[in-house]
Specification:
This protein has a two-stranded antiparallel sheet with strand order 1-2. It has helices at residues 16-47, 59-78, 82-87, 102-116, 121-128, 135-140, 147-153; strands spanning 89-93, 142-146. The chain has one domain (16-153). Helix content is 60%, strand content 6%. By secondary structure, the protein is mainly alpha-helical. It contains seven helices and two strands; from the N terminus they run αααβαααβα.
Length: 157
Amino acid sequence: MVPSPHDAAGPRAVGFPARLAAHVVDVVITWLVVGLLVGPPWLLMLVLGYDPTPLAAWFPVIAIVVVGCYFTFLHAHGRQTAGKLLVGGVVLDADTLAPIGPGRALGRLGAELLSALPFNLGYLWAAVDGERQALHDKLARTVVARKAEVASTGDGR
């Protein structure tokens, strides 16, 4: 049986301050990408004398696609986003400590919408939860574990 990520024998979960820092890094990265995708066409339309207002309708679509692809792909294939890389965390199955697949990563991202409502209380849950899991981790049955400890126990592939 694989030890729980919260047992002394298993890797510890990443704490709230590190998770918050990782999330801030990931938000900055995704919004920079969105800005780079939307900004140049917007400026080009202005320079050419066109009204860029219709482009504004595409902004939410582009943002959803960028954020969805970033989190889903990186959690499913690399187990960590750039923010989690900086704080040394990886997203794993809470029961087996195995990497999660694309379906679970997408479900976890969807559950993050619930963590954001209301007032990001689902994210703050990780600050008071004994297992250091946010609401979306509980719903998706995932844990953000310390990568160095996962590697040293041989779990999480």
